[in-house]
Structures are given as structure tokens and as C-alpha cells.
């Protein structure tokens, strides 16, 4: 008898735990209704996600959340919110989850995928030196020269435009 009660209680605990998987935790931004286990995975767009993301943004606002099974994605679509969270509060939002496959493929050298550590800070410093609006003004003469060269090459050898 005792073993059956333990079994039923055990199953009940598993059931209660599994029911929570996929549900939106308190404190998260709003988002589409979830279902147990999957959360929003069953409505997650397989392609052209930006259309669905835009539709949800109109409904739930510039910051909303999606439950992807036990995981959470927070979608930022509002420029002011992006500036606030990614720039002004970057101290607490700069890191990202470990992505082992991406790490293997890029050798940890992709700024968009790498964790926040010394390597990332080196990448960022380097990018900052060449990619800010002020810095990119310095590339303008090179860009104009390359554009002229490209047009010249296409004029002379139109059939080889792809290699140009
Ligand atoms: C920084 O993190 C990446 C993973 O994104 C890793 O590949 C790299 O070795 C780390 N660099 C340092 C200095 O810890």
C-alpha cells in the first residue's frame, strides 16, 4: 500500500513540475498565451519570423516575452527600449547564454554570439575603432575609390561582374 502512495505522490510531483514548464514566470514582460511544456513553441514562426514578431509587438508592446519550452526569449522591438537596455544598462544585459556549437564554429570570435569576457571586449574595442559613425567617415574615401573601381571593372568586363 505504502509503495503505491509514494508512487502516486511521485507522479503527482512530476505532473505539477511539468505543468509549470512552458508557463511565463511572474515578472516577465507580457506575451502570447502559453501552453504547458511547449510555452509558445507551437506558435513560434518557422520562417519570416519578423512578420509574427511585428504582429506580437503591436499586441504586447515594444518589450514582450516568449516561452520556448523551459527557456525564455525577450523580444525588443522599440528603439528606445533597445537603447535603454542594450546601451545604458549594458552592464547587466551584455552577456548571453553559452552557445557551444556557435562557439566551435566561430572559435569564440563572433561578437554577436560570444560570451562577455576579455576576448569579447577586445573584439568590441576593435569594432568600435572602425564602425562608429565618426570613425566610418574615415572609410569614405576608400569606399568611394572602391565603388569607382567596381563600376570601372563592370564597364570594361560586364560578363565578369560577379568576380568584380
Ligand atoms: C570568451 O568566451 C568565448 C566563448 O564565447 C571563448 O571561446 C573564449 O575562449 C573566451 N575568452 C577568454 C579570454 O576567456
UniProtKB/TrEMBL annotation:
Classification from the root reads: Eukaryota, Fungi, Dikarya, Basidiomycota, Agaricomycotina
Tell me where it resides: Membrane
Give the source species.
Answer: Mycena sanguinolenta
The alphabetized UniProt keywords are: Glycoprotein, Heme, Iron, Membrane, Metal-binding, Monooxygenase, Oxidoreductase, Signal, Transmembrane, Transmembrane helix
What InterPro entries does UniProt report for this protein, alphabetically?
A: Cyt_P450 (IPR001128), Cyt_P450_E_grp-I (IPR002401), Cyt_P450_sf (IPR036396), Cytochrome_P450_fung (IPR050364)
Pathway per the UniProt entry: Secondary metabolite biosynthesis
Which Pfam family, any one, appears in the UniProt record?
p450
Q: List, in alphabetical order, the Gene Ontology terms for molecular function in this entry.
A: heme binding; iron ion binding; monooxygenase activity; oxidoreductase activity, acting on paired donors, with incorporation or reduction of molecular oxygen
List membrane-spanning regions.
Answer: none
Keyword DNA damage (UniProt): no
- Predominant place of localization: membrane
Does the keyword Signal feature in the UniProt annotation? yes
User: Where does the record locate the signal sequence feature?
Assistant: 1-23
Topology of this chain in the membrane: Single-pass membrane protein
- One GO CC term of this entry? membrane
Q: Which cofactors does it use?
A: heme
Q: What is this protein called?
A: Cytochrome P450
Q: Which family does it belong to?
A: Belongs to the cytochrome P450 family.
Gene3D superfamilies from the xrefs? Cytochrome P450
Amino acid at each position: 500500500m505504502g509503495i503505491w502512495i509514494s508512487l502516486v505522490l511521485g507522479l503527482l510531483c512530476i505532473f505539477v513540475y511539468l505543468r509549470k514548464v512552458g508557463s511565463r514566470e511572474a515578472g516577465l514582460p507580457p506575451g502570447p498565451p502559453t501552453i504547458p511544456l511547449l510555452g509558445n513553441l507551437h506558435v513560434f514562426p518557422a520562417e519570416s519570423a519578423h512578420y509574427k514578431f511585428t504582429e506580437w509587438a503591436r499586441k504586447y508592446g515594444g518589450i514582450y516575452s516568449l516561452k520556448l519550452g523551459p527557456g525564455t526569449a525577450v523580444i525588443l522591438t522599440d528603439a528606445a527600449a533597445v537603447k535603454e537596455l542594450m546601451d545604458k544598462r549594458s552592464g547587466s544585459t551584455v552577456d548571453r547564454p553559452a552557445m557551444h556549437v556557435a562557439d566551435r564554429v566561430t572559435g569564440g570570435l563572433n561578437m554577436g554570439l560570444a560570451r562577455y569576457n576579455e576576448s569579447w571586449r577586445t573584439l568590441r574595442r576593435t569594432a568600435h575603432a572602425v564602425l562608429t559613425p565618426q570613425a566610418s567617415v574615415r572609410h569614405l574615401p576608400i569606399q568611394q575609390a572602391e565603388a569607382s573601381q567596381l563600376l570601372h571593372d563592370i564597364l570594361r568586363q560586364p560578363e565578369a561582374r560577379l568576380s568584380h
